[in-house]
Amino acid sequence: MSRVRIAITGIGLVTPLGTGQEQTWQHVLNGNSAARWMSSAELDAANINSDFRWYGAPVQLADTQFANGIRHLSRTAQFALTASQEAIHQAQLDARSLHTAACVIGTSKSDLRSIDSLFLGMSDEQAGLPDQQFSTLFPNSPVNEVATHFAIEGPVLCPVSACATGLVSLIRAAEFIQHDEVTCCIAGSADSSLHSGLLASYRRLGVLAPPGNDPSQACRPFDSNRSGFVVGEGASALVLESWDHAINRGAAPLAEWVDGIIGCDPTGLTSVDSTGETLAALIDRLLTRNNIAPSQVSAVSYHGTATELNDLTEARAIQKIFGDGPLGFGVKGAIGHLLGAAGAVETALGVLALRDQVLPPTVNHVNHDSDCSNRVTQHEAVHQSMEFLLKTSLGFGGHLAVGLLKRCNKSNLLESG
Question: Class of the 6-248 domain?
Answer without folding.
Answer: alpha beta
